[in-house]
Amino acid sequence: MTELLTKQTFLDKVFNYELNKEWKFEGDIPCIIDFYADWCGPCKMVAPVLEELGKEYQGKVNIYKVDTEAEQELAAAFGIRSIPSILFVPMNAEPQMAQGALPKHQFEQLFSEVLGVSK
């Protein structure tokens, strides 16, 4: 299941950039964040893949979405210039950004390599 984040839920669940200068992940399991817009064609192609992955990795990875139109401050805070942009957030390491509509097998590879999570 994917969850839509607002600025406030992002600060609570992922990273409170208003309080912390250094990266400090607030979550209890790794997550990915899909920065998207409703009008974006490639974003629409990624959405069903993320829904499927959300079910397959339930309890292991949280999948969040940020609407860059509604949450422009969040998009600016992460320097989002093209969408979709996917932020992979491991538990104890720096997050990594990927851009473009990734196929499912590439998400699974990044889940394993970046997040340290398998099915």
CATH class reads: Alpha Beta
Q: Could you estimate the helical fraction of the residues in percent?
A: 25-40%
Q: Report the sheet with the most strands, covering strand number, pairing sense and barrel closure.
A: 5 strands, mixed
Give the domain tally.
Answer: 1
Distance between the termini: 15 Å
Q: What is the global morphology?
A: globular
Q: What's the CATH superfamily, by name? A: Glutaredoxin
CATH-derived architecture: 3-Layer(aba) Sandwich
Order of helices and strands: EHEHEHEEH
Q: What radius of gyration results from the CA coordinates? A: 13 Å
Category by helix and strand content: alpha/beta
Give the averaged pLDDT, no decimals: 95
Unreliable stretches: none
- What is the number of helices? 4
Portion of residues in beta strands equals 15-25%
Number of strands: 5
CATH topology title:
Glutaredoxin
Largest beta sheet: strand ordering: 1-3-2-4-5
Please provide a written account of the structure.
By secondary structure, this protein is an alpha/beta fold. It has one domain (2-113): Glutaredoxin (3-Layer(aba) Sandwich), CATH 3.40.30.10. The chain has 4 helices and 5 strands; from the N terminus they run βαβαβαββα. It has helices at 7-13, 41-56, 72-77, 104-113, and strands at residues 2-4, 31-36, 62-67, 85-89, 96-99. The chain has a 5-stranded mixed beta sheet. α2 links the parallel β2 and β3. The two termini are 15 Å apart. The mean pLDDT is 95.
